[in-house]
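Work Package 4 report. The design task specified in the project plan requires that, given a folded chain encoded as structure tokens, an amino acid be chosen for each position. We show below one input record used in the internal validation round.
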């Protein structure tokens, strides 16, 4: 959309129905609060149906609630940034502080748009899968390797290979009772899209992680997780997107490790869980 989200609501306010004005009023008064809401949270807050919220979002021109939250979060962030000194790598002496501030900012922006219900559903699928494949190429391949190295410690059956052709073979050998977690930061890599096509041919459930929610990759996978910054333009922004994606993986890993219960587990307890799951896998 060309216009800002809040400006669009303001400009069209007089055309809204009474129920739509209730939604509009809440967004205009609480934009920083809304970006942390799932659509279910929003509906409960205003005692309206999720369908009513969704129709309002569609009326504004957004494909879905998450896209609306991306736009809103961007505006809230810009408003916050305007009250602070703008980060500018060319005009600062402390590059380390610049980087850490940028990483922190993007982690907060990612947290604002993440749907934890979606993440928890993905954890359930992971726990119920026979095999978990981690796929990705280039720098996204490093993320898939990082994820594999974490999840292998859960005792779950994990597979990974750095070579593209081997990844294609792995993808062709997976089934509907497995799951593939695929990284593609740009969302435009043709080889990665071929991997997803191969997975879809075998009815393999897919989870995609990227910073491009409007990409072909985002529309192909079954469950899509996107992180800030959206469509990074610089090397540092790209690196900060990887930090956000690693944080998402850490969430999935800890939830899977604790089986969705207490996420603050000790290393001693972690080892017991791993050994127990390995024994179960061997028995089966």
């Amino acid at each position: 959309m060309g216009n800002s989200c809040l400006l669009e609501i303001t400009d069209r306010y007089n055309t809204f129905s009474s129920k739509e004005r209730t939604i509009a009023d809440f967004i205009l008064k609480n934009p920083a609060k809304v970006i942390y809401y799932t659509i279910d949270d929003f509906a409960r807050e205003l005692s309206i149906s999720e369908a009513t919220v969704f129709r309002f979002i569609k009326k504004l021109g957004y494909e879905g609630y998450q896209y609306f939250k991306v736009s809103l979060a961007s505006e809230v962030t810009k408003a916050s940034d305007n009250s602070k000194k703008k980060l500018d790598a060319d005009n600062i002496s402390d590059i380390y502080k610049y980087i850490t501030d940028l990483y922190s900012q993007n982690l907060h922006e990612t947290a604002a748009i993440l749907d934890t219900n979606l993440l928890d559903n993905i954890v359930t699928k992971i726990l119920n899968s026979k095999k978990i494949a981690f796929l990705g190429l280039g720098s996204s391949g490093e993320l898939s390797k990082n994820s594999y190295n974490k999840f292998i410690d859960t005792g779950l059956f994990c597979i990974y290979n750095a070579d593209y052709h081997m990844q294609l073979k792995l993808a062709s050998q997976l089934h509907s009772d497995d799951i593939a977690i695929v990284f593609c930061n740009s969302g435009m890599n043709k080889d990665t899209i071929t991997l997803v096509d191969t997975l879809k041919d075998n009815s393999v459930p897919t989870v995609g992680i990227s910073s491009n929610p409007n990409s072909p990759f985002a529309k192909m996978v079954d469950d899509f997780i996107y992180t800030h910054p959206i469509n990074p333009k610089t090397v540092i922004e790209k690196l900060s997107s990887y930090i956000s994606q690693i944080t998402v993986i850490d969430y999935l890993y800890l939830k899977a490790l604790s089986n969705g219960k207490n996420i603050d587990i000790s290393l001693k307890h972690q080892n017991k869980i791993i050994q127990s799951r390995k024994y179960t896998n061997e028995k089966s």
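The two ends are 52 Å apart (CA to CA). Validation will be extended to a larger panel in the next phase.
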